[in-house]
Design goal:
Elements (H helix, E strand, L loop, with lengths): L3 E2 L3 E3 L4 E4 L10 E4 L2 H9 L6 H18 L4 H12 L6 H11 L6 H28 L5 E5 L14 H10 L4 E6 L6 H13 L3 E4 L4 H6 L5 E4 L3 E3 L4 E4 L2 H10 L4 E4 L5 E2 L16 H4 E2 L6 E2 L12 E4 L6 E4 L2 E3 L1 H5 L6
Parallel strand pairs: 5-6, 5-8, 6-7, 8-11, 9-12, 11-16
Antiparallel strand pairs: 1-2, 2-3, 3-4, 9-10, 10-15, 13-14, 16-17
Helix pairs in contact: 2-3, 2-4, 2-5, 3-4, 5-6
The structure holds 5-S-methyl-1-O-phosphono-5-thio-D-ribulose.
Length: 338
Amino acid sequence: MPHLQSRSLRVYTDSLEYLDQTRLPQAETWVRCASPEDWQVAVKSLAIRGAPLIGLSAAFVLAQYAAQHPGQENEWQWVSDRLRATRPTAVNLMYCLDVMEACFAQGPAALSERAAALFEEDRELCLQMAERGADLLNDGERVLTHCNTGALATAGVGTAIGALAVAKKRGVALHVYVNETRPLLQGGRLTAWEMADLDIPYQLIADSMAASLMAAGKVDKVMVGADRICANGDFANKVGTYMLAVVANYHKVPFYVVAPYTTVDKACATGDDIPIEQRDAAEIRGATGAFGDVVWAPENAPVWNPSFDVTPAALVTGWVLDTGVFDQAAIVRGEHCR
Ligand code: MRU
C-alpha cells in the first residue's frame, strides 16, 4: 500500500510510482521510478508533467536517493543539481529542491518527511485556490481552458481544473472548451479525460479555433494554470496561452490564471527573465514515441519548439492564488509576492 497517493503518484516507503501521462487516455499504466535517471527520463518525456507534480516527484526521488546513499551530502547535491536542470521553466521544481536542500544536514529521515510535507502542502494549496477560482464561476458559464491543470498535474484537485471541479461539486453547471494544446496534446489527451472523469460537459477544440469561438460569443471566461509567475505578474504557461490571452483581451473575455504560491518567483522581475524550455523538433514534425509514429512535415523541416510562452500581466484579469485573488492593482503593489 502506498503511504501517499494522488491521481498520478504513489509513494511507498522506499520507492515511487507514477501514472505514465504519455499513455493516457488509452492506457492507465503505473511505472516504477527507481532512480534519479528514471525520473529524468519520465519528466523529459512528459510521462510526469505539470508544474507542481514535477517538483513534488523530484522531492521524493531526492529523499529516496538520500535514504539509499546515507551520509553522502555531496552526492545528494550533485543529484539535486541534475534534477533541477531537467526542465527549466516550472519554478515549482526549484521551490521543492530548495526546500529539500535546506534540509540536507538533517539526514535521510528528515528529507523523507519534508517531501511528504510538500505533498500534503500542495494538496491543501490546490483546495484553497480551487475554492477561490470556483467563486468566480457562475451557473451556465462557458469556460475555455488550455493544457492540463488537473489532479494529474498536482497532488490535489489541480489548479484551473481544480476550480472547475469545485464549482461542479457546488452544483454550478459549466460547459468547458478544452484546447487540444499543440504540440503534445495535454488538453486533447489529459484534460478531456479528466473532464469525463469529473462529469463536466466539454467540447474539445483545436487551438486555432479559440479566436472564432470567442468571436461567436461562446466563451464567458478563460482559466489557465501557470509554470512561473513573475514579480510584475507576467507568467509562463504552456505555449498557446499568450495567444489565448490576446484573443480574450480583444473580445473582452475575462482571463484568469490559477496557481499556488509555489509558482510565484519573486526573484524573476518580468517575463523576459523566465527560462523557456526548447523541445525536440520531432514533436512539431509529427507524432513519435508513445504518441504514435507519423511524420507529416518534410523530414528535416526547420522547427522552433518552445514548450511555454509568456503572457504579459496587462492581459490578465485576475491571478487566483491560494492566498487570494489579485487584480492588476494588487499585482502592481506586489501583494501576490507576500
Ligand atoms: O509541459 P507541461 O505539460 O508540464 O506543461 C504544463 C502546463 O503548462 C500547466 O498549465 C502548468 O504546469 C500548470 S499545471 C497545474
